[in-house]
Amino acid sequence: MSINQIDMLLESMANYLNHKLKIKKRDDVLIVGIHTGGVWVAERLHALLKLQQPLGQLNIAFYRDDFSRIGLHPHVKPSTLPFEVENRHLILVDDVLHTGRTIRAALNEIFDYGRPASVTLAVLVERNGRELPIQPDVIGYSLCLEPGKHIKLNGPDPLFLEIRTLHE
Question: Which positions fall inside the Phosphoribosyltransferase domain (predicted)?
């Protein structure tokens, strides 16, 4: 997918979010991106939506359910939520929604900071293979990949998507 196509997806997502926020009369939302690709997408959406509040960043390494199996990455950075989440409306952003486990881990971490009033999930790419009942509210692009294929967002500048074959 080309850089221009990703920019168009991001603009479409921002327009949809803007419309959704106006309907729900939410003008003071907070955006939280999931490290790494979700932060890149969140930065773009944050700018397109012209939000005043700072951007939050989650690193869910300690919240993953496969932590004991894969271990800790040596360069884990802490999460940064420069605002209170209690009773606030959040937009949680990730690059690719696949199994749903990353989103589950992100929600667990957010709730450790407080109980938000709502969480809207925005993803650049939604693909098949869900293992948990997690559904995005805003989707840039939906695709179905055959087994053994994986989609990855590369960036941060420029952002581009590539489909890879997994080698097991």
Answer: 20-140
